[in-house]
């Protein structure tokens, strides 16, 4: 039990900075190049408003992080299976949050930014299925905000990477919690039969 609790705490400590980075990256997406004008004029890409990094990879991820870190604070025997069930449930919530962040960031990346072009405010890359990512020479179509494509691509790739790491961490804890929940009763039966 001690090993699994220590493992869970380590995973929780790893989740905290990832969640905070997701929140920061999502907030930066709302203010291209630090400018508040575009959020006030509703000129941001539609998928950014789904707050994949802020909600899914950020705030929702704080729950499993806190559960994993505080796991094992009560050492009474009755709580051990309850703790593992709680950690499994928290891991599932983390999987949902990180999955949401990953999917929303992916959609936003494929859609591309909303920007001012020679045709006005539009999504110049929306119909390309993400091919614009491999054609940086086309990014100059966006006249305003300046460097919006680089800004969005960079931050959305960061969110994708962070969400993938969060997903892996929660998956590890889900596996650990399930193994511990299954093996723990077997260990108790063996200990009981040996003591008999």
Automatic annotation (TrEMBL):
The chain crosses the membrane at residues 12-31, 47-71, 83-110, 153-174. It is a multi-pass membrane protein. This is Transmembrane 4 L six family member 18. InterPro entries: L6_membrane. It is found in: Membrane. GO terms for cellular component: membrane. Belongs to the L6 tetraspanin family. It comes from Pleuronectes platessa (European plaice). Keywords: Membrane, Transmembrane, Transmembrane helix.
